[in-house]
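DATA SHEET
Item: assembly model
Revision: 1
Owner: S.N.
Input lines:
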Amino acid sequence: MNKVELLAPAGDLERLKWAVLYGADAIYLGGENYSLRSNAKNFSMKDIEEGVKYAHDYGVKVYVTVNIVFHEEDYKDLVSYLKDLEKNKVDAIIASDIFILDLLKENNINLEFHLSTQSSCLNKEAVKFYQKEGVKRVVLARECSKDDIKNIIDETGIDTEVFIHGAMCMGYSGRCTLSNYLTNRDSNRGACAQICRWVFDLYDEDKKINKDIDFSFSPKDLSLINYIPDLIDLGVKSFKIEGRMKSIYYVATLLSVYRRVIDSYYNGTYKFNKNDQLELYRCTNRDALPQYFDKKPGVNEQYYIGRQENTNQDFLGVVLEYDSKNKEIVLEQRNFFKIGDTVNIFGPKKESFNIEVKYIKNESGEEVDAARHPQEILRIPCDKKVDKFDLIRINFFDIDNK
Amino acid sequence: MHEIYVPLPSKENLSLYERLNFDGFLVGIKGFSSNFNYCYDIEELKELNTKKKVYICLNRLYYNSEIDDVKNLVKELIKLDITGICYTDIGVLNILNELGFDKEIFWISNHMGTNSKTINFLEKRNVDLALLSNEITIDEIINIKKNTNIKIGAKLYGFLNMATSSRKLITNYFDYTDTKKDKDKYEIEDKVKKDKYIIVEERDTNFFTGKVLNGLLHLPRLLDNNIDFIFLDSYMLDEKEFYNVAECFVLLKSNTNDEKYLNDLNEVVKTNSKYETFDGFLDKKTVFKVEDYE
């Protein structure tokens, strides 16, 4: 039985390396052009080359998004770009504009084509169309239910990629141009202004009818953490995590949770663990629900109160090394913690554990009462060996489970 | 060729529209089309008596659970005396090709028709006409026309669809606020700019501009550049007023060189437009790189 692929986002080379480390089977990323995160840092071709080499060394695949909806002015250098991706051994492109299928054939470019979710592929007839054109994999529309996914796989046998976690679009992907109309920023060319996070007044004719609660249409996030066994049994080939703009903490946390759950299903030890949900929820500080998978989303799948997406301060530090002689963790600080706090340490493919912070030393070896300065190098005691790139976070398990 | 297509009006107004020099009707079909004032069922279509072209519009995205019904519908439509079928979901194109549909296939691109290469790809898969995205400029429309072989058209009048969600966004809001939803169409207002937009909940929820696109002044240039057809959309508009507007486009088609005439007709269009009109993106490019909008 082939194991399902866990596909992680990477906004830059650093995050690619973290994703590889934390258990991704494949990474997707965007180049400096033709990608739907036009204002993210993204990857230069040199970065892509380095990223592919790094990932392949660990047996991890790399897919590059070429998923804008092209205008006449956007073709420039596209063929040479695709040839460079082929030369650099990218495993596939994720694209939505179908002319690229012909472009690959006409130019003898041997790149696997994965259909982007931007195409809003919802049904088996659409899948059959793409299949005949040589599309190897379809990223199904996020509006597909469990029954839809099952029927599409059963009827077509195509490789399917399904989003399992991350932010949701309010509209059908590719079919929302609110950003164009309200801000002149082209949503289908990577400049979406996320109008679905705005709030509006609601009018019936000329009468304003919203009183205390503004009209909004912001969806909560998606999480299929409780449906991993179902998705594997359906025959889905790849589980995709959304979030090329997200932090290393986000990528590492999500990968560690999903990696653990997927592996436990295959080795027969899977059981529902509410801490999995808690870890995912705390990571983004947003509600995450199955959305379309188990039913059509209703009122509970949206936010209505002008919710601010404040980043929490769970992420405390990155392990730089373990000093075995003194039994101390050397760390780089990210957020405030103090002596007496209990913190949780997690890392790639390992169980997390708690320790109490009995002292904190700064780089000069002086004891301090708290870790106050971002990126300060500090030491805390820990009897258990940890590894470079393990992460330290607030012990929210005890707090939230009380 | 320069044809003009409009939505099939209500049965009461059909004879009126039949007299005007339009070239074809886009027809909404009950349960399978969206954004039409009137949708018809198969039996009504069998009785439709018109000398104009008839394109049946399957202009939605379809869930997997609906697609077999779409296929069965297409089998019925094939038997009718129609000019062609419009599609938005590429699954419908697959059905049409699998069934050997030998009439015209018309792509209603719905935001996606922004370049010639995609249209050339579709030409090889039997597509005959393409209605371009509303989010491109006149220059882009002209360039696409130059670089393609099939019939190319643009929408030049009507509210513009901005987005489609499969969520019941109005119902959900009223559920959340525990208030009663009286209708399916409301307006939303941007709190900063105070611009209004229309939101309509049917099977899906659709967002529309609050202003009506009026591209009459751009028509001469499109005609000079051999645009094949234009689409004038009556959705959410009064049919009689729309008729008067459409008549201006028909009249202008035969006399594009008289600037005064053009401006006079444009005044007639404005007079018959209850809503404020605008040029949409016909004269405005969208941006997508930070340096473009800084």
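QC remark: The longest helix of chain A spans residues 248-266.
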